[in-house]
Amino acid sequence: MSTVRVVVDASSGLAPWRQVQDQIIRLISRGALAPGTRLPPIRQLAGDLGLASGTIARAYRELEAAGWVRTARARGTVVAETAERSDPAALLRAAAAEFVSAAKEIGADEETAVSVVRKAYGSP
User: Fold this and answer.
1) Which residue of 36, 93, 103, 121 has the smallest Cβ count within 10 Å?
2) Domain total in the chain
3) 16-29 and 42-49 helices cross at what angle (nearest 10)?
4) Does residue 2 form part of some domain?
5) How many C-alpha atoms does 101 have within 13 Å on its Cβ side?
């Protein structure tokens, strides 16, 4: 089983299950989790992150519904063969959550953070 490195930031404003889902999608999209890679069991990942098992179960259900993973009793939850595609919206949500967390840590307000993003895009 490959090591899945997921971090949940309780202050990000994004639901923990969504943070887990988005980070796993990003790992798959970047090739860090190849098709066929087994994800940690729900209880193990929940324990590692200090979350309820139901939170991880929801993330896994959402990933499965979107076609990123598949679950089989004998093998557990594995990255789906068809999961090589990227999901730009999921990748952006994960990046935005990280950005918001960093902005809050340095004391930036929402207006300033949005302004910085607009400037990065070249918008006034």
Assistant:
1) 121
2) 1
3) 110
4) no
5) 15
